[in-house]
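for the record, two folds in this file. i put them one after another cuz i was lazy. first one right below, seq on top, structure tokens after. the second one comes after a little note so u can tell where it starts
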Amino acid sequence: MASPDQEFSQRLERYFDGTLSAEERAVVEQRLRTDPAARQAYWEAARWNAALNAWGEQYAGRQEAKLEEFPAAPPRSVRRAWLVRTLAAAAALVLCFFAFRALRPSAEVVLAEVSFQRDATLPRVLHAGVYTISAGAIRFETTAGASVSVAAPARFRLTAADRIELASGRLTARMTRPEARLTVKVRDLEVTDLGTAFGVDANASGRALVSVFDGLVAVKTSTTSDDLHLAGGESLVRGRGAASAIAKTSYDAVAFRELWPLTAGIDEATKLVEFLPPGPLLRPLRDYRANDRVFLFPERQGAVVQQPLAVDLAPDVRTWPDSPVSPYPIPRGERAHSYLVFFQPDVASNANAGGLRRLAGEITFQHRVLGVICSDHGLDASDSVLGIAGADYSTPGQRRGLEEADKENYRGGGLPHDSITIAPDGRTVRFDFHVSNEREQMRVLVAPE
């Protein structure tokens, strides 16, 4: 087997022969940019390649002229001048090559990878360039650490791993790690994250809307000297034209409704699942009521478990209530995204709301499920770690978890128990609720990546 240096030398030979594949050529060029020893080897190879080419041309000419013997060698000064000219030409070509690549990002550099798309046809990996989405929605993860979702119709240019120019359409972004960064440019408006989740809507009329779901962003234009900071639960608008002023407005997350699930890290969900808008609660949880659906509320993202956290369902034991209580607690130090799924009947609007109903469906998350908490005690104990401060999770005297046995005699008896299952893919939670006139909740914990 060839050593790494031998393998690189062989690739250099094929590089000058023009027989490398695009992938092999990219490997060689990357090493030339970062390894001084590789560049030295390149110069040696370039010198000998130039000399051999020159000798080959002379030999071919002599053969064509049917010369019987080689002419006398030229004087040393002539040979030295020829070698200097050859090396100078090679050096100029190499310098031009690297200068061009430094000024213009290579089309082969991967800036993002598509993690989800619905009715769209983008390639799996995204390079610098312009992309158009005529239908559906996509989500891609940039190498700079941002999860970006875009809804059609939209057109955007990916100029760097941390920079997007949105020509039209709706875009949401969520930073997936502390050092993540992203700037979204809409005409002359620049939105830069400061550790956050936000949305940008560039509509056809020329109006731009920016809404911050969580954290903080800095907004500036070519005509402003200072950045304007927007915090979670705030929005601003910018009209058409450079002379139009930037104005804060009422918090608007509805414009990004189609992108809420993707922004929160959810790929698919049954139609009976209604998503609460991202950002601070616009109204108390107790006000979200319906008799024919369940609600999903994204809670803390990337929360760090401070103490071992008991769960009622884990990937190793996939079905509840058949599973033992907390088969494998989530260990201290684990990071998790948290989602509250709840049913809350609207008895006031329907006299028959208290009747027995079955709500069954599934939710597929972007990443693997770590566990599900569905007991009253488990939900109460995890509110402070995974919940949103100020949310009204519990009501004194009322239960909130799922029923695990056929013993609800106080409801009239015979009510089947609820069940939840983690599907074999490890990312899908299937639920089968038998609901009546009381609320039910479960908390799903998902790995950040």
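(here's the note) second protein begins now
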Amino acid sequence: MSMSAAEFQATIREADFTEHVIAEAEAAGWLVYHIPDWMYRTAMAKWRDDGHRRGRWWPPRGFPDLILVRAHPPPPELLFVELKSRYGKQSVDQIAWRDALVACGQTVELWRPKDWHWIVARLAPKPKEGRE
């Protein structure tokens, strides 16, 4: 039995939502940078075990989930995206990163499963400008 769109949006885990967004972005021609949670946890465990960089976090706490870059077609775009589940809340660190990136003129967006149709449209290639 398949799930309705509303059920999907209400129950999808953030990790699964992330995978859907990454697949959609790559299919639409974006370069995607993402550090999976398992890699983050593995790196931190190694650093903790080795006593390396105590007190430092990699990636920094609160850094956006995705960095998306698309150079073609023009104009080029750089986009920072924070992904949240239906009820997920942004942490103080995530808000600080968002505010700092926006202050530097960067685009930072918060996406949730309920925004899926908008996300697909946002990621879609832009029509070429100029004469046909």
